[in-house]
């Protein structure tokens, strides 16, 4: 449904929100001086963010935002972290204070606070953050806390991935790698998705460490692809079961050569199922359904081509069938040239 | 990895700007303007993927966008992301906004900017896709709202 303009809110309301810089300076003075209540602090920080969005420099308010980080109130912490993530600052004094606040929140064992801290580290992702936290995050990820929430595991996996991307030298391999592979078996598909993203990137530089992920990935993929549409419920998107996760698992498999026969048999079944489903009449007229279905299909074809290059003519049959299936009913959002270059 | 998420209206006014790579502020605004010009020229029935401008990354990066009435949602991604997956992710994000704001419109994005950021934070973290399941995202947002209400009551 396209968004509509809401009635009744006058357009004049908008200019009032955009204060002049002089007004901001006075407001900021209030911000610093008075002991403002939570609502006012939030309001001021929001205004600063909005002004920044429109393109004006904000060189004040940073210290106040950092102070908000140590508040015990969730809403204040949240807005403090938001401000910091959006207006990343290279002032070293502040970075030390920010890192301290993050350290406290990570150690707090409060999943909401840990989530906020992890999010901030991932959003900023600077080298200083990597230096401070790259050693800690794997512990958070695989720690045996009985009460480590799924959301914390998800966030920690992606946070680690982000730090690895910016500073790979600061993330050492260790015991935790085998535990991360095990996350592929987690019940929560969100955790599995995050773990798959992490493993895919790490496996490119350290394939030996993550070899065991191949068979786990294949069994996970086959469970998803053969599931009835009622099984995965929440993760089913317009009648396609867990399309993002399927695509990621297929990408992970492209980091390795074709697996040994036992696993390969299962993988072949999976790929056949995907190709067959692509040729069935669509379950929905919506473009989302065909996009999701095609996303999985193209990634499957990509994997087949990758194996084909490794092994030779065994998979030719698949490739031509895949091409046929992909030729069906291109939605307008796909350029034909994009598809042709994909099949290359 | 997602480099940036931009939402702007048909006149190029930014409504949500989130960068996952460090750019100085003037460059950020320049990127928004450049992206707007690239995207404005496209008809509604043309492919939703295009090469990014020169400022943001170069040839490895693509812009994936969707146009909803008055707003453009643009995700700038590198080759490690599936384009169709991102296209659907934009849809998930918009549907979630719709659920949280009830018939979302551009003014909601203006007046509740922090809320929009929090919703986005449940979907994308540090440039990585965190969650694609809309029910899960909405549940997290509702939990945040409850936490907010309980704090207001306890501490006044």
UniProtKB/TrEMBL annotation, chain A:
One record GO biological process: clathrin-dependent endocytosis
GO CC term (a single one): AP-2 adaptor complex
Cite the InterPro entries for this sequence.
Answer: Adaptor_Complx_Large_Subunit, ARM-like, ARM-type_fold, Clathrin/coatomer_adapt-like_N
Of which family is this protein a member? Answer: Belongs to the adaptor complexes large subunit family.
Pfam families found in the cross-reference section? Adaptin_N
| Domain Clathrin/coatomer adaptor adaptin-like N-terminal positions | 24-309
Name the chain's protein. Answer: Clathrin/coatomer adaptor adaptin-like N-terminal domain-containing protein
A GO molecular function assigned to this protein is: clathrin adaptor activity
* Keywords, sorted A to Z: Membrane, Protein transport, Transport
Q: Does the keyword Membrane apply?
A: yes
Q: Where in the cell is it found?
A: Endomembrane system
Q: Where is this region: Disordered?
A: 1-20
Identify the Gene3D superfamilies for this entry: Leucine-rich Repeat Variant
Q: How does it sit in the membrane?
A: Peripheral membrane protein
Q: Does the keyword Lyase apply?
A: no
Automatic annotation (TrEMBL), chain B:
Keyword Ion transport (UniProt): no
Q: Where in the cell is it found?
A: Cytoplasmic vesicle membrane; Golgi apparatus
> Mind giving the lineage of the organism this protein is from?
Eukaryota, Metazoa, Chordata, Craniata, Vertebrata
The reply to whether Metal-binding figures as a keyword in the UniProt entry is no
Report the sequence similarity comment from the record: Belongs to the adaptor complexes small subunit family.
Gene name on record? ARPIN
Domain AP complex mu/sigma subunit: residue ranges: 1-147
Topology relative to the membrane, per the entry? Peripheral membrane protein
Physiological role: Part of the AP-3 complex, an adaptor-related complex which is not clathrin-associated. The complex is associated with the Golgi region as well as more peripheral structures. It facilitates the budding of vesicles from the Golgi membrane and may be directly involved in trafficking to lysosomes. In concert with the BLOC-1 complex, AP-3 is required to target cargos into vesicles assembled at cell bodies for delivery into neurites and nerve terminals.
Q: Name one GO cellular component term.
A: Golgi apparatus
One of the GO biological process terms: Golgi to vacuole transport
Q: How does it assemble?
A: Adaptor protein complex 3 (AP-3) is a heterotetramer composed of two large adaptins (delta-type subunit AP3D1 and beta-type subunit AP3B1 or AP3B2), a medium adaptin (mu-type subunit AP3M1 or AP3M2) and a small adaptin (sigma-type subunit APS1 or AP3S2). Interacts with AGAP1. AP-3 associates with the BLOC-1 complex.
Q: Which PANTHER family match?
A: ADAPTOR COMPLEXES SMALL SUBUNIT FAMILY
- What is the official name of this protein in its record? AP complex subunit sigma
Name the UniProt key words of this record, in alphabetical order.
Answer: Cytoplasmic vesicle, Golgi apparatus, Membrane, Protein transport, Transport
């Amino acid at each position: 449904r396209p968004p509509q303009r809401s009635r009744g809110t006058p357009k004049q309301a908008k200019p009032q929100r955009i204060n002049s810089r002089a007004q901001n300076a006075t407001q900021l003075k209030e911000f610093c001086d008075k002991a403002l209540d939570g609502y006012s602090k939030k309001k001021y920080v929001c205004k600063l963010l909005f002004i920044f969005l429109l393109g004006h420099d904000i060189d004040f308010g940073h210290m106040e935002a950092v102070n908000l980080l140590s508040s015990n109130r969730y809403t204040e912490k949240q807005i403090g972290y938001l401000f910091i993530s959006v207006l990343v600052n290279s002032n070293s004094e502040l970075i030390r204070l920010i890192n301290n606040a993050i350290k406290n929140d990570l150690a707090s064992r409060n999943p909401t606070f840990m989530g906020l801290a992890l999010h901030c580290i991932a959003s900023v992702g600077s080298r200083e953050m990597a230096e401070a936290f790259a050693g800690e995050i794997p512990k958070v990820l695989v720690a045996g806390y009985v009460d480590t929430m799924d959301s914390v595991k998800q966030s920690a996996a992606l946070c680690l991935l982000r730090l690895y991307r910016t500073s790979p030298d600061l993330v050492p391999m260790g015991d935790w790698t085998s535990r991360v592979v095990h996350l592929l078996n987690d019940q929560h598909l969100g955790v599995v998705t995050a773990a798959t993203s992490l493993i895919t990137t790490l496996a490119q530089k350290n394939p030996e460490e993550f070899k065991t992920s191949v068979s786990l990935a294949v069994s996970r993929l086959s469970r998803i692809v053969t599931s009835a549409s009622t099984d995965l419920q929440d993760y089913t998107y317009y009648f396609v079961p867990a399309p993002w996760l399927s695509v990621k698992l297929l990408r992970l498999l492209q980091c390795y050569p074709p697996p040994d026969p036992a696993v390969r048999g299962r993988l072949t079944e999976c790929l056949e199922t995907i190709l067959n489903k692509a040729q069935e009449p669509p379950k929905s007229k919506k473009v989302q359904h065909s996009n999701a279905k095609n996303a999985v299909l193209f990634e499957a074809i990509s994997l087949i081509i990758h194996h084909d290059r490794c092994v030779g003519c065994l998979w030719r049959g698949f490739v031509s069938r895949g091409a046929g299936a992909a030729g069906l009913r291109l939605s307008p959002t796909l350029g034909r040239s994009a598809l042709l270059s994909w099949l290359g | 990895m997602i480099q940036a998420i931009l939402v702007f209206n048909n006149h190029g006014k930014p409504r949500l700007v989130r960068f996952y790579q460090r750019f100085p502020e003037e460059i950020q605004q320049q990127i928004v303007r450049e992206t707007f010009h690239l995207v404005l020229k496209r008809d509604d029935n043309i492919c939703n993927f295009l090469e990014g401008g020169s400022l943001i990354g170069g040839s490895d990066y693509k812009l994936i966008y969707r146009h909803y009435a008055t707003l453009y949602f643009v995700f700038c991604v590198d080759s490690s992301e599936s384009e169709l997956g991102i296209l659907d992710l934009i849809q998930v994000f918009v549907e979630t906004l719709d659920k949280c704001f009830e018939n979302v419109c551009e003014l909601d994005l203006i007046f509740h900017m922090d809320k929009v950021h929090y919703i986005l934070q449940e979907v994308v973290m540090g440039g990585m896709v965190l969650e694609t399941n809309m029910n899960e995202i909405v549940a997290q947002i509702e939990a945040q709202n409850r936490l907010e209400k309980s704090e207001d009551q306890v501490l006044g």
